[in-house]
Design goal:
two-stranded antiparallel ribbon; 6 helices; 2 strands; 58% helix
């Protein structure tokens, strides 16, 4: 009698655990969508880019980067604006940072556009894909930017900040 009760309890607990795990298994491959506090400023910033309101777009992308410090969509779009301003090395630095985490962002891309330069800005879609759709765009933007840097003869970014030189001592 005691063993039967023990097995019934274990069966009920196992069934409850399985029922609780079902919603997690039903999620789409790739993980969750971008949180709204990150998605909303990226989408708004993209719309500003399309309207030519670049400073407003930059502010929105900055909000998204503060809310999610690894968001590849925000870094890519901000890099597009920097490229447009002629800040090629800064744009390349942002794209390289965006590429580090790009495979983690599985949100599909809704629209892409040029912002006056060679790089593509993107608007995420509120839908998750099986693989990253931003990663190949970032790689394409890096290649375009590297070609532009080579063509314009822009000095490459310094690998590290210059060394600090101590101030001369005065008597």
């Amino acid at each position: 009698m005691r063993n039967t009760r023990k097995y019934v309890i274990l069966t009920v607990v196992a069934a409850l655990c399985l029922c609780m795990a079902m919603p997690a298994m039903a999620q789409p491959k790739g993980g969750a969508m971008m949180p709204m506090d990150v998605y909303t400023p990226i989408a708004a910033g993209y719309d500003f880019v399309r309207e030519g309101k670049y400073e407003a777009a930059k502010n929105e992308f900055d909000k998204a980067m503060k809310a999610d410090p690894n968001n590849s969509f925000a870094f890519n779009n901000n890099a597009v604006l920097l490229e447009r301003e002629g800040k090629l090395n800064d744009a390349l630095a942002l794209l390289n940072r965006a590429s580090k985490h790009a495979d983690e962002y599985l949100d599909k891309v809704s629209q892409t556009c040029f912002a006056g330069g060679g790089c593509l800005a993107v608007k995420p879609l509120r839908e998750v894909g099986e693989k990253s759709s931003i990663a190949p765009i970032i790689q394409e933007n890096i290649q375009k930017l590297q070609a532009k840097i080579a063509a314009t003869g822009t000095a490459p970014p310094a690998p590290s900040p210059p060394p600090m030189v101590p101030q001369p001592k005065t008597k």
